[in-house]
Design goal:
It contains seven helices and nine strands. By secondary structure, the protein is of the alpha/beta class. Helix 4 links the parallel strand 2 and strand 3. 33% of the residues are buried.
Length: 209
C-alpha cells in the first residue's frame, strides 16, 4: 500500500491531533491574508482558522477521500486535490503556508526538500511559513522500530505501521536544515498525542521568507 492509498483508506477514521497555536500565529498573520494549508486532510486547521476570523483560506491534499470528507464536513471551505509535487499556485502569490504533520509522511530528504522549495516559491516576500511535525523519540518502543526499519528504509527515524503507512520522525538538525532559507521567528519543542493514541516528541516553527 502506498502513502496515498493509506490515507484514502483511513480518511473516515483518523482524527488529527497536532495542536494549533493561534496566539503566536496572530502575531504574524492578518485576518485577510491568503493562507494555504498544504496537506490539509479534512480541513481541521482551516476550520479552526475560519472560526477565528481568517477569511482567505485554501487547502490542498493528495488524498481524494480526505478532500471528500472535508467538503462534506466543511462545505464552506475551499479544499482541493493536490495533483502532483508542484503547488498549483503562481510564484510569490501566498501570504502564509501551513504544513501540519506532513513531513512525517514524506520519507526521503529529496522529496522533503522539494516540497519546502515549492513552499518558498509560492510565498510572497516576508511570507510566513508555519510548520508542525514530529521529532525523534528515545523510548524503547520507538527506538526498536527505528532500528528495525533503518536498513530497509535507509533513514533513521522511519518506520512502518501495521495498518500500512510509512512514517518518519526527524532530528532537530534535519528540520533546521530544511528551513534554512527562512528567518526563524518561533520554534518550540512539544509533546503530541498521535492519531493512534500514543505520544511523540514534536515541534512547531514559524519562519519568514
Amino acid at each position: 500500500m502506498n502513502q496515498k492509498e493509506y490515507w484514502d483508506s483511513v480518511s473516515e477514521d483518523k482524527e488529527f491531533t497536532t495542536p494549533f497555536h493561534p496566539k503566536d500565529f496572530a502575531r504574524y498573520v492578518k485576518k485577510d491574508d491568503f493562507i494555504v494549508d498544504i496537506g490539509c486532510g479534512y480541513g481541521r486547521t482551516l476550520r479552526e482558522l475560519k472560526e477565528l476570523g481568517y477569511t482567505n483560506l485554501r487547502g490542498y491534499d493528495f488524498s481524494e477521500n480526505m478532500i471528500k470528507r472535508g467538503k462534506r464536513e466543511n462545505p464552506d471551505l475551499d479544499l482541493r486535490i493536490k495533483e502532483n509535487e508542484k503547488i498549483d499556485l503562481p510564484d510569490e502569490s501566498v501570504d502564509v503556508i501551513i504544513l501540519f504533520a506532513v513531513l512525517t509522511s514524506i520519507i526521503t530528504d529529496e522529496e522533503q526538500k522539494e516540497l519546502i522549495s515549492e513552499i518558498y516559491r509560492v510565498l510572497k516576500p516576508n511570507g510566513i511559513f508555519y510548520l508542525t511535525d514530529f521529532l525523534l523519540n528515545d523510548d524503547d518502543r520507538n527506538l526498536k522500530r527505528y532500528d528495525k526499519y533503518h536498513d530497509e528504509l535507509g533513514i533513521y527515524g522511519c518506520f512502518k505501521l501495521s495498518e500500512g503507512a510509512t512514517l518518519r520522525h526527524h532530528s532537530e538538525e534535519h528540520i533546521f536544515e530544511l528551513v534554512e532559507s527562512f528567518e526563524r521567528k518561533e520554534y518550540q519543542p512539544e509533546v503530541y498525542d498521535t492519531m493512534n493514541g500514543h505520544t511523540s516528541n514534536g515541534f512547531y516553527y514559524i519562519g519568514m521568507k
